[in-house]
Fold:
Amino acid sequence: MRLETITRVPQTQTHKTPLLFVHGMWHGAWCWDEYFLPYFAEYGYHATALSLRGHAGSDGKISGNTIANYVSDVDQVASQFETAPVIIGHSMGGFLTQKYLETHNAPAAVLLASNPHYGLWPTFFRMAGQRPLTLLKVIGQLRLYPVVETPEAARWALFSKDMPEEQVSKYYAKLNDESFRMFMDLLGLNLANPKKVKTPLLILGAEFDNAISPEQVHATARAYGINAEIFPNMAHDMMLELNWRSVSKRILNWLKEKGI
Structure:
């Protein structure tokens, strides 16, 4: 399958290990190219982001896709590198990263506001309490677009209250639908098994994340035997938030600590 990738090549490549960025629900490779790909290329990394099937510029449809389909997409792109890449996954992309690492080795991986290994029931119940009409639409339409179907809804799910309206509108216009079948996997049909993952992990979360709470991030980190780090005054889309640079700098420093 033809999958869209966006790559930023450094003027001088000072790091042998490439970076592969995996987006979450509703997004595409574009969300990494706003800030993160140029940032890491500036620091000497070969940085690539993919769009999962049906998302942004990739072939295929979204409806009916499973977690296994999306993990296959990550594998397809990761296998094209001469050197195994560091995997950096956001939200659902963080969950895909966990699933990918169950059967693949990587030098390291980073989970940003990642869907927990145990599934999305806490998020489901949080939405039932705070946005019940949205959840009814999701169930009634068997699609996840209602979660981000208006700029206001997208802000609740993805962005901080202080994100400028023009930026919210810009990113909102690029959002895709998302597979309800995949969502069923995240509710229990295909969960992650931390015991199978041996790759060093950095797990980061956001203080004001309505999609994946700090408690969920901490629970994921405990399952992998490490501590999570929570960024203050930040919402779910950590790579697009106003303080994105603090997140990218933490990842950069961690990679240096690992000698990558």
User: Anything to note?
Assistant: Strands lie at 5-8, 19-22, 47-50, 86-90, 109-112, 201-206, 229-231. The longest helix spans residues 244-257. The CA atoms of residues 62 and 99 lie 19 Å apart.
